[in-house]
Amino acid sequence: MNPRSIRFRLIIWYAGLLTAVFLLFGVALYQVLRGYLEHSLAETLARRSDQIAVSLLANLDKTGERYVAEEIQSRYAPENYDRFIRITKPNGIVLYASGPAAGFDPSGLRPLVVNAVRGDFTRKETLADGIRLLMTTKVYQAPDGERFLIESGAPMAPIETILSHLLLSLLLGVPLVGLVAVGGGFFLVGRALAPVVQIARSAEQITLHNLNERLPLTNTGDELEHLSRALNRMIARLHEAFEQNRRFLADASHELRTPLAALRGEMENVVQQARTLPELSDRAGSVLEEVDRLAKIVDALFAISRLDAGESQQGWERFDLAPLAVSTTDQMSLLAEDKGIGVACNAEGKVSVDGDRARIKQVVVNLLDNAIKYTPSGGMISLNVRARNGQAVLEVVDTGMGIPAGALPHIFERFYRVDQARSRDAGGAGLGLAIVKSICAAHGGRVEVESVEGKGSRFRVELPLASQVTK
Amino acid sequence: MRILVIEDERKVAEFVARGLRAERFAVDVANDGQAGWEMAANCQYDLVVLDLMLPSLSGIEILKRLRRRGSQVPVLVLTARADTPEKVENFEAGADDYLTKPFAFDELLVRVKALLRRGSLDRSSILRIGDLEIDRQRQQAKRAGKRIELTSKEYSLLEYLAANAGRVLSRTMIIEHVWDESFQGLTNIVDVYVRHLRGKVDDQYPKKLIRTVRGVGYSISEEAET
Hints:
The structure holds two protein chains of two kinds.
Chain A: H1 6-55, H2 60-63, H3 65-76, E1 84-88, E2 94-97, E3 121-126, E4 132-141, E5 147-155, H4 157-204, H5 223-273, H6 278-308, E6 317-320, H7 321-338, E7 342-347, E8 352-355, H8 357-373, E9 380-388, E10 391-398, H9 420-426, H10 432-442, E11 446-452, E12 456-464
Parallel strand pairs in A: 7-9
Antiparallel strand pairs in A: 1-2, 1-5, 3-4, 4-5, 6-8, 9-10, 10-12, 11-12
Helix pairs in contact in A: 1-4, 5-6, 6-10, 7-8, 8-10
Chain B: E1 2-6, H1 10-22, E2 26-30, H2 33-42, E3 47-51, H3 59-68, E4 75-79, H4 84-93, E5 97-100, H5 105-115, E6 126-129, E7 132-135, E8 140-143, E9 146-148, H6 152-163, E10 169-170, H7 171-178, H8 188-201, E11 210-213, E12 217-220
Parallel strand pairs in B: 1-2, 1-3, 3-4, 4-5
Antiparallel strand pairs in B: 6-7, 7-8, 8-9, 10-12, 11-12
């Protein structure tokens, strides 16, 4: 997938955000749960210490230390319940300490320094075998002012088990959430962008020849409908501008013909009457030549405007391009021979196309004429016709002077001249290739050029092959 | 022979009329559609030269009205448009021939004569211009009894010139007749062929038959000229 596509970027954002939110939630859940579990365990432990203090230590002076220790042992049996209890007297001597339980052995615990303890606190102790205990320490102030420290502890293993289970499910959950986000994002973004792809595809199909067509509207009232409508209005404006341009061209060439006819008639008359005056008839002849040139330009402009308007397919027929190429090459070979240029025509098999035969022939004529004009004596021109991948391909390859790279993009524009001097010399108006392009486009094909300056050019025309099915 | 020219552009009408009169035709001119229609409807003409773009009544309408009345008069349409659908429309409306502006007067004349069947074209099987002899059956040419080897295009060109001997043929006419309209863009093909033809027909002989009329075209005739 293209990493710059909106789809890709949206999915990345979508999956990234969802994963981040899930991670944040997981961390918070883990912290809150751990705090809650430790807090409630500490509460339970503290309550037990309070019980011991209130029920036993308060009467220590009456019952004696021994009684208290035995009472704790019989009432609470800390070892059996995996608990730890230790009572430290004010002088630092331990009054009572429970022994090893099933889950842990507290013998390694360091005693507390009584005077260092300021008040109640909770701590975690790690025993020699790696087992961690949660310990609360309660300070009991006896009526005579003596301070006893009551420690109550329990292993943290159950809490740790719960937390590690939670952690495991969170760790498994993250990639799962990521995957679901990518999959869901792919689907959702794909659905959201499908109309855009559709719009792009439709817009791609609108060319100068079907500017009257519009993009399909979805009528969903969403942003994409607005986009389609905006694009359609833009196409309409383009259509209008292009139409105006085309109509101007058609009208201008049309209007120019009549005065040209008058001019031509008058000048012919002059030539007739000036037969005995060679100088005058020569001048008049020169004017007539210019009239001819003007007429040719007008013809070409008119042809282009007709082609660009999408000439009707009325005069179309199905024909084989190969014999057309062979016969045209034949008809023009004298022009090439005259300049000392060799011409070869390679036409493979049957290459059927649908179109206006005279127009397609004009393509061949103009391309060959162009190649002959710009190939110096001793050069070689080859015309290749073949069918490739559903396209009829016609190539005119020459060993001529080539076209400078900077001129290549403009070579099919009307009135474009690669360089003023050389085209004037060859007598063209710069419309031959523009006509070729218009004819190709009107037949649903295209023309391309490759050229190396000083080495030669290759013009390549592609037209859709006539489908075998319909006939 | 009486010809009606219906053309609103006075200068065009004038040179057409002048040229036709020089060929000894009787010519009437109408400068708008309505006048043209009235004249065409009321007089017997042998041929009508009809412009399509006319004020007051269009050329195509005049043509249709004429044909509706059963008139068989040959009509040569002058048009400023050269596209195929237009041509088809003209012929369907009953035009006998058409000519795109701007045109050489000789082109008009050749078509007018063809329509009037006055046989401007020499249809005999042997054409002779001076000592040049063209055998149309065998498609061969001889000059001073000597056979000239010609390619088929050179022969077509020579035959076309010879069949219209004395008349100046424009490059446009030559291309249309010897080649086809696809070649219309390149006029120099005619010059190249004429040069080759001269090399074979004229170069070895003191008397030159093929003549260039600058700006107009080529002709073949007996009058010696260079």
